[in-house]
Each structure stands twice: as C-alpha cells, then as structure tokens.
Design the sequence.
DNA sequence: ATCCGTTGGCGTACACCGTACGGTACAGGC
DNA sequence: GCCTGTACCGTACGGTGTACGCCAACGGAT
C-alpha cells in the first residue's frame, strides 16, 4: 500500500483552504494560479514544475513543499477552473425548462473548454471530486430533477451531454493546436492537402466518401467544424432525451 | 515554409507500400508493427523511439532512415490499426437498416478502442487521411446513404456517433489506466474514496447530487460505467436521428 | 538570552525523452 | 577494383519529474 495513490491525501488537499503561506510567502493558491496561467497561454505541456517555479520566482523543488507531485497539482488546477462555471447564484436550473437548462449546461461547459483547452488533457482517469466539481455536479443535476426521469437516467443523460461537449471541445482544441503548431489555418491546410489527397487516391474508388466529403469540406473550407458538430449533436441528443421523457422504457 | 508540416510528405508515406527492406532487413512495416505491439502492451508512452529500436534489434537512429519522425510514426500506427476495422467484404451497410448499421459502426469502433486504447491518445488534431481511414469513412457513410438525409447531415450524424464512441472509449481507457497504475479496481477505489468524500463534504449541502450519486454508484459499484454510457447514449442518439429523418428541418 | 528540533526552501543528480549531427561501412554501378 | 550513395548508428543537447541531502530560519523551552 504505497502513498502514491492515497485518495485521502489528494482529497484533503483539494478541500483545503490553500491560504497558509510559507516563509517566502509561497502559497498553494499562488502555485496553482501560475500553473493555470502557463497552461492557458501555452498548453498543459508548458506548465512544468520548473517553469511554474520560475514564474513565481522560487526554486523548482520548493513547490514540493506544498504539493505532493505533478498529479496533485493538475487536480488542483482542474478543480480551480471548474470553479469558474457556476459561481454564486448563476443556477442552470433557473433557465426555463429542462431543455433550455441542458443547453445552458452544454454551452457553459463548451465555453470553459474554449477558455482552458488544457482541461481536456488534465482530466481522464478517476474523477477529481474537488469541491467545485461536486458543486458543478449538483447544479447540473438540478436541471433534470423532477421531470420524470429516474435517478440513474438523470445521471446518464447528464453524462451523455457532457461527453458530447468534451468530444467536440477536444476536436476543437486539437485543430487549434494543429493550427498554431503548423502555422497553417484550417482553410490553408485543406487547400494544400485536398489536391495531394486526390492525386494519391487515383485508382481507388470512394463514391460516397468523395461526394459527401466534398460537400462538407466546401461548406466548412476544412475537413471538420467542431462548432457545427457541437450544435448539431446537441439538437439530436436533446430530441432523443425528449423521446426518453415521453416514453419511459 | 519548413518541411516540418508538409502534408504531401506525410501522405506519400501513408499511401506507400512500406515493404522495401534496407541492408539489415529493416522495414517501415516492421517498425510500425513493433511500435503498435509496445503501445498495445504498455500504452502509447511506451512506444518510444529507443524502445521500438531495441525491440527490433537496431540502433535508435536507424529508425529515422525510414520514418521522418515520431509524428509520422504515430500516423502510420493509427492508419494501420484502422485497417482492422472493415476488412474485405465486411460491410456495415449490409447489416439491415440504417439503425442497425449505425449501431454496428459504433460497436466496431468501440471494440477497436478496447483493443488499442492508445488510439485515443494518438489521434486529435488534423485527421490522418491514410488509405484505411478513407476506406473507413466510405464504408461508414454508406450506412446513411439514400435514407433521406442531405450530404451534410450524413457527415454530421456519423461525426456525432463517432464522437460519442470516442468519448466513452476515452473514459473507459482512462479508468483502465488508473486501475493499472494504482493497483486498485474501480470498486476498491470507490469503497476507499466514498467515506472520505462523505466526511470532507460534511457542512456543505448537495441534496440532488447526494441522492443521484448514491443511486448510480450503488448500481455500478463505482463512479461511472463507460459500457453503460456507451449503450445508453447510443440509444438516445439513434432516437434523435430517427426524429431527424422523420421531420427534416 | 540561548539552545535546539522542526520545517521551508533549494542545488544537484538520475533516468528518461526526441532528434541534430557526423562518422562508418556496405551495396551496387562502372 | 574502385567510387559513390546511403543504411546504419554513437554521441550529445536540451528538456522532463522528482529523490535526496543540505542549509537557514523560525518557535518554543529552558
């Protein structure tokens, strides 16, 4: 039983106050904020222990006095930005019926992923279960409370919507990163790739893919449009949920 | 204009035959296969250039004679395992109506992600557009051809289903990795975490989250069940697509 | 006022990573 | 038999997370 994956230690850290300063004024909050700023500006990979420490002006290893390791720092970063979601009285359940509420939940999560694209890289695996994550879960579930769904269905519907948002947000973040790394906009890349692809595909036959691919790429000037995928998928999912409410299985 | 992100070079590599051996019999195919074996066994992080070379029995830098860099090797790995999907006459469009076909597509992609969890880490960003990826796109689109959807809707519906599968598969892979790294099964982890979470949450009030969270965690003996999320979400999405077909917008 | 145990801060070191660079030795054309 | 192109590879560089051990400053007891 190693101390490596002790859930209690990580949870206590997450639910702590993070305000007690050390000798040089070093605080958990300051460490987390610096790491978030770095990740916002240059991606999660840029939030290395060395660069976080440099940004604050302390030695690298001083961070380990306040944070057990990189993993726990990531957890703290995640729960901190989740705190941006529903602050105070901004209750998703007060936005009309379940459909408007669910749409609001999806849009707020989408916005959050646009502000902090690294969130998608930092999550995955066991959930974080920090205070803001639990608050988020509560606020989002309230949207679906009392409309005729079982508790399990409420959880499943919420998970479905959040999975959809996470998927399209990941797609968006991936394209944005590719654009930054390559220096080519999506349109430029597609203009450069399409002719090469067409030439290399000569001899093979893809009737449907050719027709559909050309149609959608002409509309988006690219190979995919995450914003459209977000809206289209959300509409379809909400229609499916409507059916679930109308005709419970 | 650097050669770093030249789409033509990467495409030519993907559509090549990969069979011409060098002096010591070193082949692109052998390199890719070794990398896939490593990634299957220990995750994408284990497929380092050094370990791939060691596995084949050549020097690390010899790989760079056949592959421009790690990025291109990843692309080759991805397109290679995508080739496992619809081999030969196994056509998703021959599985009944669009609903059964779409379900078949979802299940085959789900299976593939279970066999090669690293796929989810290797994709993202611009699509790979190798021969097997294009073949997959064609085969999957045929399921939706001629049922009253526009070309754009066909592409959007397919994207929606694949995004859903990718999302729940990523969730599954994350939990599996957490289980391997921590040595705790999902049930064990939840049994260890739940009481701590309950104690740390005393003083706060989460009525709906408490009720729903307890209900679902009692069913799954965990905090989430990707297999259930896969099935539930797919049903809801298919219902929503049904509505789209019935009442085009 | 002095001493001492505790603790915050940090410098160094280790084992990894991708890959740029330059050297070596072999295969095939003449 | 010689020459040349290239397959192969050893070394090195700058990066990563963090284990370990040292130092200095603080708080409390005497």
Sequence:
């Amino acid at each position: 039983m190693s101390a490596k994956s002790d859930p209690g230690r990580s949870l206590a850290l997450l639910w702590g106050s993070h305000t007690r300063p050390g000798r040089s004024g070093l605080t958990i909050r300051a460490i987390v904020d610096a790491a978030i700023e770095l990740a916002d500006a240059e991606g999660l990979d840029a939030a290395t222990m060395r660069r976080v420490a440099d940004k604050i002006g302390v030695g690298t290893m001083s961070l380990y006095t306040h944070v057990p390791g990189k993993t726990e720092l990531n957890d703290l970063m995640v729960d901190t930005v989740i705190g941006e979601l529903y602050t105070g009285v901004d209750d998703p359940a007060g936005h009309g019926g379940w459909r408007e509420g669910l749409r609001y939940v999806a849009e707020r999560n989408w916005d959050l992923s646009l502000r902090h694209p690294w969130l998608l890289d930092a999550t995955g695996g066991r959930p974080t279960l920090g205070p803001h994550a639990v608050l988020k879960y509560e606020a989002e579930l309230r949207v679906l409370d009392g409309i005729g769904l079982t508790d399990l269905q409420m959880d499943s519907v919420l998970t479905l919507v959040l999975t959809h948002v996470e998927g399209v947000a990941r797609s968006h973040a991936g394209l944005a990163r590719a654009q930054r790394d390559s220096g080519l906009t999506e349109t430029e890349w597609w203009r450069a790739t399409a002719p090469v692809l067409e030439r290399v595909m000569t001899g093979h036959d893809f009737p449907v893919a050719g027709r559909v691919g050309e149609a959608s790429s002409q509309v988006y000037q690219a190979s995919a449009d995450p914003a459209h995928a977000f809206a289209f998928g959300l509409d379809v999912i909400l229609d499916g949920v409507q059916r679930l409410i109308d005709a419970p299985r």
Remarks:
- Residues 22-24, 26, 53, 58-62, 65-66 of chain B lie near DNA strand D (CB under 10 Å from a C1').
- DSSP finds twelve helices and no strands in chain B.
- Chain B touches chain A through 77 residues (CB under 8 Å).
- Chain B has a mean pLDDT of 91.
